[in-house]
Amino acid sequence: MKELHYEFYIDGTPEQVWETLISPEGTKQIYYGSVIRSTFKEGELLEYIGPGADGDETLHVYGTLLEFTPQKALRFTHKVGPSYHKGHERYESRISWLLEPVGGTTKLTLIHDEWHPEDPSYAGSTGAWWQILSNTKTLVETGRTLDFGSWT
């Protein structure tokens, strides 16, 4: 499987983009109602929890925090929660959010790589990232998100 790599330029500061990516207020709007639960200490657990198949506390994604550099980088291993795929714990990939100021904008790079060749979550990720990234850009620039209809 090939690496998923996206670059967006957002009319906002790295601080604004960072807050959207990690704050409960931001993540709820861009990540299907989920929030991040983490100490944000490298080597510890990071989870995305929110409404889903297992109720309001559905575990959507979890992994190990690899890097946390505010307004610059957020990297973690990625596994989908148990309600998504049987044998989910066998498949791990890596997500890297990278921010850099470019003039008066922020370049947001998302790299989702290190895929297991049989990971069934790859296909869903290719479509979901476009919605998450579009919502991130729109939220920072306008204060609202896009209406994609049902997220399920």
What does it look like?
By secondary structure, the protein is an alpha+beta fold. It has a single domain, classed as 2-Layer Sandwich (Alpha-D-Glucose-1,6-Bisphosphate, Chain A, domain 4). Helices cover 24% and strands 40% of the residues. The chain contains 3 helices and 7 strands; from the N terminus they run βααββββββα. It has a 7-stranded antiparallel sheet with strand order 1-7-6-5-4-3-2. α1 crosses α2 and α1 (14-22) crosses α3 (122-142). The chain starts with a strand and ends in a 10-residue tail after the last helix. The model has no long low-confidence stretch (mean pLDDT 94).
The percent range for strand residues is 35-45%
Distance between the terminal alpha carbons, to the nearest Å? 24 Å
Main sheet, how many strands, which sense, barrel? 7 strands, antiparallel
CATH superfamily, by name, is START domain
The arrangement of helices and strands along the chain is EHHEEEEEEH
Counted up, domains total 1
Strand order of the largest sheet: 1-7-6-5-4-3-2
**Outline, from the CA principal axes?**
globular
Which characteristics define this entry?
alpha+beta, 7-stranded antiparallel beta sheet, 3 helices, 24% helix, globular, ASHA1/2-like_C
Protein topology:
Elements: E1 4-10, H1 14-22, H2 24-30, E2 35-38, E3 45-52, E4 55-69, E5 73-80, E6 93-102, E7 105-113, H3 122-142
Helix pairs in contact: 1-2, 1-3
